Amino acid sequence: QDVAALEYRAPHLAAASLAFAFPAPPAGARLLDVACGTGLVARELHRRGFRCLHGVDGSAGMLERAQSTGLYRQLRRCVLGREPLPAPAEHYDAVTVVGALGEGQVPSTAVPELLRVTKPGGFLCLTTRSNPSNLRYKAELEAALERLERQGAWQKVLAQEVERWERATSEEEGIQGTGYISGVVYIYRKCPVPPVEEG
Questions:
Q1: Are 122 and 192 in contact (CB under 8 A)?
Q2: Does the first or last residue of the chain, that is N or C, have fewer Cβ atoms within 10 Å of its Cβ?
Q3: Cα 7 from Cα 168, distance rounded (Å)
Q4: pLDDT per residue over 142-187, tens digit each?
Q5: Once rounded to an integer, what is the mean pLDDT over residues 177-199?
Q6: What is the separation, in whole angstroms, between the first and last Cα of the chain?
Q7: Fold of the CATH domain 3-190
């Protein structure tokens, strides 16, 4: 109810971006929804043909809600940043972290752990907010993303700034009197990226 009141668009934007990046119909793609919460992202992914969804979250209550959606094949409790993801290396075709990369939430130091569980050639979809109280975190996150790109760990596919991300909860946080805060969707592809097949 809270996110509906805030017109929170990140799950929709992230799922649309990921579906656009995918080279093949996603039904067989195994996807990990990190910090899955109540399953808002799963609902959007499901609408776009993703069927093999796994979720992790730090809150048992959130996982219970996510379970009740019937959209996940597997749900596990995990506090990212404090413990590794409960998955083997190179296990997922895609990994999403929507709405949890922010000040006081998942630390930017957890990004390599997301890469670890992604298959080579797989996609990672991350979001963060661009409101004033999150700018320091956003700068740290972007430095971590760029460092991994320089090291050849992944390639940037997309970084899309979105103005009307969600309603601002205070005057100071909003963009020049619009009443909204902005945010950004990032899509990366883990290297080595498989070669394009001829034909």
A1: no
A2: C
A3: 10
A4: 999 999 999 999 999 999 988 877 777 777 777 666 788 889 999 9
A5: 82
A6: 48
A7: Rossmann fold (3.40.50)
